[in-house]
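TICKET #2291
ISSUE: user wants both folds in one file
ATTACHMENT 1:
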Amino acid sequence: MPIAMSLRQHWWIGVSAALLLLYAVLSLLVPHGHALAAWGDITQLLLLLAASIVMTANAVSERGQTRLFWSLMAVGCFMWSVSQGGWTYYEVLLHRDLPDPYFGDIILFVHVVPFMAALALRPHLAQEEQKLYFTTLNFLMLLIWWVFLYAFIVFPDEYVAMNVPLYSRNYDVLYLVENLVLLGALGLLTAGTRGAWRTIYRHLTVAMALYTFCSEAMNAAIARGQYYTGSIYDIPFVAGVCWLIWVGLLARELKPRCEPPPPELSRWMALAPRLAMIAILSLPVMGYWAVFYLDAPLQLRHFRLLVTLAAMLVLGVCVFIRQYLLDHELMRLLDTSHRSLENLQRLQSQLVQKEKLASLGQLVAGAAHEINNPLAAILGYSELLSSNEALAPNQVSMAQKIGQQARRTRDLVSDLLSFAQQAPAEKALLDVGSLLHRAIKMETLRLEGKQVRVETKIAPDLPRIWGNGNQLFQCCLQIIGNAVDALEEVGGGALAVEGRREGDEVVLEFSDSGPGIREPQRVFDPFYTTKPIGKGTGLGLSATYGVVQDHHGHIACHNRSQGGAVFVLRFPVPTTAMLPEARAAKA
């Protein structure tokens, strides 16, 4: 493919050289007349159409900012072709000289604006965050500004109160300024880039410089009455358009890609919005000058004032729309930042909790194993003493109390070992809906005679999750049990249990109408409890937190505004690639 592209470029260079040589020979040998004008007009029109086709082909083959860049270049070349088509229509088909003023002059003036907009995109820079509607607004505001300049400076002497010499002079000066601005932008981009894009910008600069030079030469020749279509003055124009086509062919071979922006160029480009605001603020100044200081007939001054007011209105609407979109984008970014901060805080909390649980688990595991051995001996001897018939009743009662406290200590040690368990339990696909129903039924048995009602809302089509059924069952029992204990403190209430799917997660939600949680941020800390001494160890929810984390889930709690506490457990829905069988088969 690169060889084919290179051959195409060499072929076009050869065709361009031959065309320029032929054009020069004909302009020198063929006398001024209809045949020479037809040759010049048709040649220039075909070249501009070819430039439009090449730019369009580049736009079709690219994506993103680069596609938009070549699309705007194609629009500028097409408008250029339209202006040249009007010239061809008058001179070739109608056999008439071009009228003065000529309607195509407006199109010729405006065709530079899409080129400016294309350069303002800076396609050589990676701008993934830039929105298309901001680019569109920039293009519209640029177009409106240059149209306003044309309507303010040139149009009054062209159509309102015709003054051909003044109109021609103003048009030539403004068109030169427009082309010089384009050349200045190309020069800055050429100096601030590297690689393939620098090559493209450099050749675009050469092509537009040739056109600017020939445009000024043509205008000077027209003023002297020496210009005619097909003359020697057209050769730089033909060379510039041929060079522009070659740039499009070169870009198809180079396939330029985005690059990180240099810091100094980014700072310079940050001036663009401020310059745009200065241009908008200049409108009332120009209107004031047109009314009070411009030496022109009253009719022209009124027209320029109306043009200024119309431009202020249209640009004001554009600024309003842009500000609205910027505010909307700012709110979106703030919302995204807020969610990111919440996720970061949650992640930090989880990391701190995991570190606390891991450190404390290692300590507790060692202590619990050491306590188990003497505890077993105490329990054995207490049972032996309580069964000894030779002891007095008060001694037997004391032995039984020792055994009761030893059994309580054994249960505490069992909780400690469960809390400190580090080996992962066996997991399988679980029907979390049936697990929830079983936990609710078990807790319902101890609610008889109590003013506690349980409301369930469990989706029948809950997907299975990957986990250990016994561990998750104990987690549900622990949360339901805590809620029931809280409701008993206030004389009863309602407990709502809900199971649903949200995206790729299974969500279990437990909410009660009790007094709420005193310190929600500490509820998963080990040994933290609000229950009376002897009733709770403060390890249940800590163990639950560890189990949920081991299942790659997330647990959170908060108080409801209407009263009560809410516990929310989230577990990922496993995909085929997440299952151990699939991973083993892949390995």
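ATTACHMENT 2:
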Amino acid sequence: MRRLLVPSTLIAVAGLSLLAFTPVQTADETPLWGFTQAGSRAQRELEARLDAQLQPDSLRVWLKYLSRHPNQLGSPGDSANAEWIAAHYRAWGFQTRIDTYQVLFPTPRERLLELVAPTRRRMNLAEPVLKEDATSAIVKGRLPPYNAYSADGDVEAEVVYVNYGVPQDYEELARRGIDVRGKIVLARYGGSWRGIKPKVAAEKGAIGCLIYSDPRDDGYYNGDVYPKGAWRREDGFQRGSVEDMPQYPGDPLTPGVGATRDAKRMDRKDSPVIMKIPVLPISYQDAEPILAAMSGPMAPPSWRGALPLPYHLGPGPAKVHLKLAFNWDLVPAHDVVAMLPGSRYPDQWVLRGNHMDGWVFGAGDPLSGQVALLEEARAVGILARSGWRPQRTIVYTSWDGEEPGLLGSTEFAEDHAAELERKAVAYINSDSNGRGFLGVGGSHQLERFVTQIAGDVKDPETGATALARLRARLEVAGNDGAARGDLEISPLGSGSDYTPFLQHLGIPSLNIGYGGEGGGGSYHSVFDSFDYYRRFGDPTFEYGVALAKTGGRATLRLADADVLPFRYSSLANRIHTYLGQVEKLAGDMRTSTQRLDHLVDIKAYALADDPTETWVVPQKKDSVPYLNFAPLENSVARLRKAATAYDAALAGKMAAGGPSEQEARNLNGLLQGLEERLLSPDGLPRRPWFRHMIYAPGFWTGYGVKTLPGVREGVEQREWDNVSKYVTEISDALDRLSSGLEQATGMLDS
């Protein structure tokens, strides 16, 4: 699902990047975190045996087979793929089942878009057949371009161009005296997750929303378009969901509970996550005549795309007629669940997942990640048949319904919440995969763990390790910490299947994948095909093997570690950084508010002096009050002390040969539930489903993460009561974590 509309020279996989470092060494002789020296040697020998089983030809054959037909949620192809995947898990020795949920999934019944003024033109709203792309000719069973969970609607109005359609863009329009009430907005993809665009538009009074891919962001401005190159064609479309996932993901009718056949469902009209206005994606071929027919002020320079025309803001005189109607059906979502029981801790689970549903053929998103996961599972099955057994239970999952809104993973997590809270030690996610750099985001106590994995996996193009390639790139970018230390992994917002595990259940999570060297032209289009992927995604499928090596190491190390490999000083240091950011934000807002008030006074004086002046006077904003962050500062200081003490105690214990059997059992039992202590039962403002106090998707950013979200968003939205409340909530959560770490240190010291 994840998409990053930026030049491919940036490090980006599923919207994630690796940023900076703190000191550590990584080499084959360095003990793995959570293992003794002897255990580390045995673990690396096991991983060498895993690597020897991985074959790129398996990925190539499976990708072509799974993407041979449309495989969106609820389709015959989706069901057939689920059965095929389950059969393979069984053949490899896993205890396998398919969990099925009944979820709301709208599909188009009617789509109409026409320019009605100042000239008339009916838009095509269809993708072409290309001789270079075999599956583009398959029409049966495939969905046309649309946005899932758009409202039904029949509207006609003048158009306003709103750039990326994020809140700041509407502030820019307001400064120019432009109001979108009663209008249809035209936004370009990028700048935020697509669902934010109609959400903000509806809040501002718009009655419809069109979203297009501008060639500056995803088209000929960046390179040759498909099929000659990797970038989006003028008649290419980006499908996608606009479900308001920052409120809650999953089935719109069953928030908080699994969407089983007999689950209690709300009425569709009462669901807060279905958009209130009609929304439609269009190509830049269809956006061009609309933009060409607009007048009004010129758009700011940063708003102008690469189409050969002046970018006017409107409103009008371009007027469009938009009509959408959907089939609002309950369809089955099939989650494939494959288990390999643990020998020592069978009730501690390591979960590894990737989704299997696409928007059409889904070769890149998600099947490139899915086939890497399958090859990883096949190799693990071979290890098990040779006599090895994981200490903890390994659970491989192939999720359904991720594209419409993380449906399969969320319903599974809600349905099995109590069991997962007792048993899950970590969740490892992947999504689409391609050539380039390793990207990782996740729980920050896993930074040392990820760094050591990256140091043990070779990059297929350079022959260096994935870690060394990242460091080299960061050195080129001028990062002073590039040559040393633990990778500072990205905090997770949303956009893939880790969300319910981390942010609802408090299970430590990772999101992994390779990429950054391909184009963007196939994303969520009919051209996300095997033909596209084998040319521009990962032609040799060696990066799929690299992902299998990376995910395999993460899975096996979590399954076999003597002590769960969490290093908490990394987490404490990141939280300390986030607190500093929030405090700086509040201080900067106080200063900028004072400057704005001064500007308002100047403009008001100018208007009084010259009644013909057309400036729009900005409204004064409430001053930023004194905000007491002291409780949070004290809790962060306690956490940093407790985390440092625990990490030192664990390092000492492992160097001395490790804990006894009973000590390890007691310690692992305590560590298994520590992340859950960072949850608040009441959740976040306006969205109680999101309970994690450190990480959440932004309410107005969608995929984009907000760290310390209750406080940060309270400051940003000037909701001062929420700031005070969540300073206390986060402080309490950190103190709970600190208490657990102090207890764990006592176990090690004794």
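RESOLUTION: both attachments delivered.
EXTRA DETAIL ON ATTACHMENT 2: Residues 568-609 form the longest helix (42 residues).
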